[in-house]
Amino acid sequence: MKALAPSSISAPFGRYSHGVALDGPGRLVATSGQLALRADGTVPEGAYAQARQCFANCTAILAEAGFGPADAVRINAFVTDRSHFPDYMRARDEWLSEVEVLPASTLVIVVGFTRPEFLVEVEVTAFRSQP
């Protein structure tokens, strides 16, 4: 995996790569969008806690395939208000804190989700080359 950062465009706004190139045969894993739903059915309060739960859910899905955050090539995230942006970014940056090549990342402001208590949704695409 190689980060793509052309000098002809502005640097990323945060801790992510503009693009990521993947070579060779490999395995791709895509999570569905994960809402901040704990295994017991509860939803944490606040955008930061919800973003952390979304990433925890994505981590569990990736782990099921033997993957982890370092295999992420793209993160798509959705928040219900611009005010949630810093909390989401904090959770995302924590999730990527030990990742060397940062994935591409997109954040979109949306009107809402299936239930009003949800503030954040995250989906991850991951790839690993096979020998």
TrEMBL record:
<protein>
    <submittedName>
        <fullName>Endoribonuclease L-PSP</fullName>
    </submittedName>
</protein>
<dbReference type="InterPro" id="IPR006175">
    <property type="entry name" value="YjgF/YER057c/UK114"/>
</dbReference>
<dbReference type="Pfam" id="PF01042">
    <property type="entry name" value="Ribonuc_L-PSP"/>
</dbReference>
<dbReference type="InterPro" id="IPR035959">
    <property type="entry name" value="RutC-like_sf"/>
</dbReference>
